[in-house]
């Protein structure tokens, strides 16, 4: 299974399917009967780990395990970042609404750009600075309205996801700049293993019944492990701005599924803040995509 033979159009539709699979986490979590907080995180990470241990050798061969030993410091830092994302995401879903979590996670691309500016020295265009300001206003509005509603803690926990993601991609970009590419798939495996080990003592004693375990196994395999592998394939065909734009569908799908499937209607403040965040991201990525296309055309014209 590789990205060869995957056309651009098929990659787009495959990425749409990936975002739909990612978006099932919120609605599935709302149908758990007994599992709570860290136990939810433990079981999802455990089933993700088991799934990847089976899937990755079939995909990349047994050499994938050798990469764990040869990946170096950056690979393990990336793995720790993935473990924070896995853990914080599921814990946040048990503390606040699906919409709050997903809108907060949508800050990832902008925080990544900011991290690259601070730690690597990447220059940010004016459009990205403007997007960061607008998205910050949207998140600030959303957070401010939650101060007296008891959901602020969950939203702050959710903020750990894009922060860890920004750290992860900054490490990957820094390693790439030094000529050391990181295979993100083994890093995801490391993240699942760390999350499983860290949350095990916090999840004890277990309360999940067979119904809960079935749902959490679904999350581990179909909501995380499989779409993780598919997204890597898509990223080999699609440009980064295209992936960033398509990934935003997770926010829309996730809120819609939680609303339809669990009756969780988003608050007006979340919709307002989310509109600002997503609008800023879409505007930034579309302009970036157009700039790259214009630059490519100019290069082709000059070459002629």
TrEMBL record:
Location of the EamA domain: 11-142, 153-283
Pfam families xref list: EamA
Keywords carried by this UniProt record: Membrane, Transmembrane, Transmembrane helix
Transmembrane regions listed in the UniProt entry: 12-29, 41-59, 75-95, 101-120, 127-144, 150-172, 184-204, 216-238, 243-262, 268-287
Protein's recorded name: DMT family transporter
Organism: Variovorax ginsengisoli
